[in-house]
Design brief:
Blueprint (H helix, E strand, L loop, with lengths): L1 E6 L3 H14 L4 E5 L10 H6 L3 E5 L7 E5 L4 E5 L15 E6 L2 E7 L9 H23 L5 E6 L12 H4 L7 H12 L3 E2 L30 E5 L1 H4 L2 E6 L15 E5 L2
Parallel strand pairs: 1-2, 7-8
Antiparallel strand pairs: 1-12, 2-4, 3-4, 5-6, 6-7, 8-10, 9-10, 11-12
The protein binds one DNA strand through loops.
Length: about 260
DNA sequence: ATGCCGTACCGTGTACGA
């Protein structure tokens, strides 16, 4: 089974491209972030025609997450308990379902924006609350098959950014953010892609501006963290940077993992 | 080559991304 995660930066602007990639890349389950549309606006037909079921949440042009699957979608969960709010609203940043026997989460971690920005504490609260649940899931069932897939908006190590100097006074590489990410690794979840895509200089995101992609100036911020039992089944993984190329590309590349029996 | 920002909004500018 092949599972992927992709921040598509508007599913309406890229539905055809995403469906084409799903079929070409032979992907069974895709966790999507930044759909940037309401539930009703989601272009479901193209996915259905290709044999994929869709579950999504979204309220407006901001955020929005989805899961598409051709191996079934069961036990849908939208958000997580006590999910921190922004302006009294639970944003569309987390959705989950069981697909092919795996509990798949599509996560769009809040952008901290700046080190002293209120969004940063929101981001850290959000990750901390999720981490508490993620730990409990493993405590309840050490053999749980879980993948925490999505745009984490954190570059965990210095090898994961093109310039530590550039980001020194910005979001994404600060100690609190990295600690929040490491908390998931400490809980037992594994970055199963890294062994198959060693760095430095291996990224999943490149800004649209400043020729960042051709200059190979990116960040590795999209991850598929697997529970211990699922991590054991991972037989391969890759970042499909070909999908960052050309007109109409998202600023993120899809990240793919292969799960054996 | 991968190429000089993109997307959504009642919108001719503003917010957001990271």
């Amino acid at each position: 089974m092949r599972i992927a995660t992709w921040n598509v930066n508007s599913i309406r602007a890229r539905a055809e491209r995403v469906v084409d990639w799903l079929e070409r890349a032979d992907v069974d389950v895709l966790a999507i972030q930044e759909t940037k549309c309401s539930v009703d606006q989601f272009p479901e037909m193209g996915f259905a025609a290709a044999g994929y079921d869709v579950e999504r949440i979204g309220y407006n042009q901001w955020n929005g997450v989805a899961i598409v699957s051709r191996v079934g979608i069961e036990d849908l969960q939208t958000g997580f308990p006590d999910q921190p709010r922004w302006n009294d609203a639970v944003e569309a940043r987390a959705i989950s379902a069981i697909c092919g026997g795996v509990r798949v989460w599509s996560l769009y971690v809040p952008n901290g924006r700046g080190l002293d920005d209120p969004h940063m504490s929101y981001k850290l609260d959000w990750l901390g609350t999720l981490n508490g649940h993620a730990r409990q899931w493993l405590a309840d069932d050490p053999s749980a098959q879980i993948v925490l897939a999505g745009d984490w908006n954190i570059a965990p190590t210095d090898d994961d950014v093109w310039s530590v100097d550039y980001y020194a006074d910005k979001s994404h590489i600060s100690a609190p953010e990295r600690a929040a990410f490491t908390d998931f690794l400490d809980a037992g979840y594994a970055d199963v892609v890294r062994p198959h895509a060693p760095g430095p200089g291996v990224y999943t995101y490149w800004d649209y501006t400043q020729l960042r992609f051709p200059r190979k100036e990116g960040m590795r911020i999209d991850f598929t963290l697997c529970s211990p039992a699922l991590a054991e089944r991972v037989s391969g993984a890759h970042i499909d940077r070909e999908e960052r190329k050309g007109k109409g590309a998202s600023d993120h590349a899809p990240v793919v993992i292969d799960i054996g029996p």
